Structures are given as C-alpha cells and as structure tokens.
Amino acid sequence: MTTTENYDGVLLIKDERILTEEEMKALHPIQKQFIESYIANKDTKPVEEWLTEEMKKSLPEHSAEEVEAMSQAIITTLRTHEESKKSLQESINNGRSKESWLAAKLKEATSAVSTQERVKYLQDLDNALELANAEMSQTLTTKAGLINQNPSLDGFIAEQHHVNTFNLNAEASGSPFRARVLKPGDAGYTKNSVDIVIEDIIEKKVASRYQCKYYKDAKSTTAAFAKGDYRGQQKLIPADQVEEIASKATFVIKSPDGITSTPLTKEQAKILQKEAQSGKWNDSNWNEYKIQDLALGIGKQAGNAALLGAAIGAGTNIVGKLWNDEEIDGQEVVEDAIKTGADFGIKAAAAGALKVGVEKGVIGVIPKGTPAGIIASIAYVGIENVKVVGKMVSGELTMREGLDQMGQVTASAIGGMAVAAKGTFIGATVGGVFGPAGALVGGFIGGTVGYMAGSAVGETIARGYQKVRVTVVDKAKQVGSAIVDTVSDLADRIWALLPF
What we know:
The chain is α/β, with parallel strands linked by helices.
C-alpha cells in the first residue's frame, strides 16, 4: 500500500511495503543482542570467531558450514570496504576526484576480460545505478513521471575525447599537466560552469578552462555560447567550424607547455555517438573513450545515489521511538567507535544482526538467502553515512560537503564490490545496496547504532537526517516543473541548488 506523509509542507510518497514499523520493532532486539554481545567479547575473541558463534546461536536452523560462510562473507566484505575507503581517501588527499579513482578501480576490476566484455560490464553497472536512483526518486517525490526514462549513454563524447587524448599526449611527453571534465559536486561547478580544466598536478593550479559546445553547425554553436556567461573560459568547438566562428575559439585544448588534444569534427563526434548507441565497438580508440566515459559516469551516478539515498534513509524517525531512552551495556564503546572510526566490530555486529533478521523473515523487503556480502554492504554504508551526518550537524561539514562525503562512501563501496567481484556482473549487488530498500534499511541500521551511542547522539543524528531529507526533497520540488530528461539531470539540478 502506498500512502503519503507530510514533512514541513513537503509531500512525500511512503511505500509501506519497503520497511514497516513492525519490522523495525522486530529487528531492534536482534541488533541490541549482537552489539552487546560484541562489546562483551571484543577483548577476548577475534571478531571473526565471535561473529560466527553469535550467528550460530541465532540461526540453529542453518548448518554450521552455512553460518560460517555467512560470517566469513560479512568479514571479507567489510575488510574490502575499509581498504577501499582508505585507498579513496589517499587518492583524494593527492588531488584526485572520487570519479577518477572509481574509474581506475573499475578498469582494474575488468582488466582480465575483453574490451567488449568490459564495456558491457560497465554499461550494466551504469544501468543498475541509474535504475536504483530512479527508484529512489520515485519513492522520494510525487514527480516520479519526470525521471523514468532510460539513461543517455553517449556521455559528452567530445569533452571526453579532448580530455583523453590530451592526457595520453601529456603522459607520453612527461608533462605535469592533466585535463579533466568538471562534474557536479566538484569545487567551482555552478550554472554556466566550466566543462574542462587543465591543471598542473605538481603545483595544483588550474592553467586553463574550456567551455565545450558541439552543435550541428557554426551558427548553432555560436548561438549556444551567446546564451550564457562564459567569461574566463576558452570556447572549444568542432574542428570543422573554426573558420566560421569568431576569434577566441579553439578546436583543441592546450597546456602552457604546448601539449594539445586531438581535433574532433562534429561529424566524427556523431559517428562515435552512433557507435555507442548501436552497441558496435569497432574503433579501438572509441573503446577507450567509452570505457573512461562510462567509468567516470558511474562515479557521478554514485554521487547521485548518495544524494537520493540520504533522503530515503532519513525516513527512519521511528528509531527514536523504538529506543525510548533505552541504554545498552558498553554504550561508550559505540560512541567512541563512531567518533574515532574504530568501528569494524560494530559494523560486523550490525551486519550479522541484519543477516539474522533477514533469514528469520523479520525484514521482508530483503529476501531470505540474500548474500551476506550485500547485507554487510548495506550495514557498512548506513553506518558510514551516520558518521558523516554527525559531522554535518556539528558544523564540521556543510550540507554540500557532507553529501559529497556520502558520495565518497558510495564510490568506495562500489569500488570494493567491483574489485571483489573481479569483473563479473555486480548490478544486482549495486541495486540491492543502493536502491530504496537498501537505502532505507541502511538508514535504519545506522540510526540505531547512533542511538546505541546514547540518546543525545541518536537524536542529533535524527535531526541531521531530517534536515537532509527536507532539503533534498525541497530542492527536488523546485526543479520538478522543469524538463528533466534523466535522474542524472534531476540530481544535477538538485546539486546546483544545495546550500554550501
């Protein structure tokens, strides 16, 4: 049954089939049992040994071998995610974007398969994320009909062509300059934003900025530039339109040391687009552009999933009612884990409790037999996001910065899943973790851990989540009457309206 509820004048769709109050109440004592048991045993038993024993006690209907496999999958998944998070953070500290990090991880995960298989893998993953985001958008707002179209797959071909060819030339020449496509969420991304920047990766300075327009003819391209304020940006246009367009236009991007991209005409761009849409991957160069473009696009989708998932996961105000000032033994351990990040055991306990709840039929939205790795990923993302929300409420992070960090959580989780899967299809995993059910259950798991750290901590997190939800929905409603072609388009517009 679908009903509606009102948050400060914002009308939301509430699907009662996703997660009911009764299910939350039934899962609550299982979570408490697992967390308290972990705290009581953390100094005497390795977490792997403790988790297996605890799950065996809770699932006597399963064989010892089955439970051991579940426990091992949870531990392995959580360790993979922790390693992935560390890798991403190191990359960001070195000036790399989460999108480029994820692109590299996805290429690493598919290095052993053919180019066609790699493209299909990335396409499937992109589609799975797009579908998960669309489902979340439909769950979140009454504007679902605006965003149910299939994703556009060509993905700014001209921009990526110039960036890829420039970077190949720069790397071969030992140049310190690199180009990248500016994405929503990047610093400086606004209306009329720069499309491409060339940066000195040693000095960490932007050397040049480009606005790319690839319209059908010179007249249309010129008109497109006239509609916006692109001061401070060089005009990047098709190679076959340069002679007809006024000065200050270029058909390549160029660094101060003379490295350039490869020219691309409008006709060549259309050929690449047609190849992409038809599924014919005959041009080896195009394969590399397509792979890079898809991988970067998946990174962007990860940010969108975090944005929408944060609002969906915020709909768990019932957690406070369930807890009702209840305390647990070792409450300070949970609080310390949230604050310091030393929370591997807490995550393992939360994931084990959720797996038990699923196998006992307590949580109906997640089918019995769902792989323990998916369960662990839901718990991991939910708890990591709670930590981010805490920083947002304290003022350590702004709304935009917090949501960007949630995007990093999502990206690192996808990177971990991809490497663990070694190039096999992971669309079902992604859909299970980042779709509406995973987002809502993960939000509940994270919120519960927050309350286990104390009612003050839990209530603070709940307020932060509600603020996130109302803000995101409010911004979605502001763009609801506009023409929105895809979920990505909607998310881009929401990002642009978010407060700093």
